[in-house]
Amino acid sequence: MPQFAANLSLMYTELPFLERFAAAARDGFRAVEYLFPYAHAPAQLAQQLRAHGLQQVLFNAPPGGTTRDAMATAWDAGARGTLCLAGQDAAFRAGLQQALEYASVLQCPRVHVMGGLLPAGQSHAGVQALVTERLHWAAQQAQDAGVALLIEPINGRDMPGYYLQRQDQAHALVQAVDSPRLQVQMDLYHCQIVEGDVAMKLRHYLPTGRVGHIQIAGVPDRHEPDSGELHYPYLFDVLDQLGYTGWVGCEYRPRAGTSQGLGWLQAYARMDAAEI
Ligand SMILES: O=C(O)C(=O)[C@@H](O)CO
Ligand SMILES: [Mg+2]
């Protein structure tokens, strides 16, 4: 049975961010993920986790910026990662170091490194050498910190120009870097929008051991995984058949109230036993 983590950036947005931890715990979640922690001191977040018996299982490295203030506001300013951006070495390295410091305090085993928006005139192949070299460096830092780094294909409808959109591109990078510390974050919502054939992709990629985290949402509206073109009960069975023991992040925008929309989860009452 899959083990679910609440995504506090998309869920519980009816509450201020620091109140979302308690709300997720009240609804039975034992694990949380979110996009960015940088607007809050790490100790403040660790205290929320402790107070509510939650594990932090994933967050993102900063999407841009070289100071914590800039990292905290970069997403709203339109930044979507620096991995593919030439001339952004300082931001890439400072961002990763900052993320690893948060991961240490939050005891979080995974950090998602966002790819960035391809500059006009650049191609995926054209930035391959730069990206591979940065991921080599980042995987070494992650190894020293005891953390896994994740890269995630994201659909170009939600994020036009995003550097990494397909599962095969992400797996090619992971193979090229060849570090057990670099894995793929497989978001089934993005996967369905970009390429489809989701169950077969799970069957193909999970046995490689290179998928470090899964996320879900209904398609096409990114609401609860109980309607739309993906039939999640079937996909959850596929995860079980494949022996997936990691977390499944609920990265969706509730249609009308987070707790009210959790009816789909009742069939999966045990949410606390995944291996982090
Ligand atoms: O959008 C997603 O999907 C994510 O997982 C985020 O971390 C990046 O926007
Ligand atoms: Mg995602």
Automatic annotation (TrEMBL):
InterPro entries linked to this entry: HPT_OtnI_isomerases, HyI-like, Sugar_Epim/Isomerase, Xyl_isomerase-like_sf, Xyl_isomerase-like_TIM-brl
Gene3D superfamilies recorded: Divalent-metal-dependent TIM barrel enzymes (3.20.20.150)
Sequence ranges assigned to domain Xylose isomerase-like TIM barrel in this UniProt record: 21-267
GO molecular function, one term: hydroxypyruvate isomerase activity
Coiled-coil regions listed: none
UniProt KW keywords: Isomerase, Pyruvate
Pfam families according to UniProt: AP_endonuc_2
Recorded superkingdom: Bacteria
Residues at the catalytic site: E152, E251
GO process terms (BP): glyoxylate metabolic process
Family: Belongs to the hyi family.
Protein known as: Hydroxypyruvate isomerase
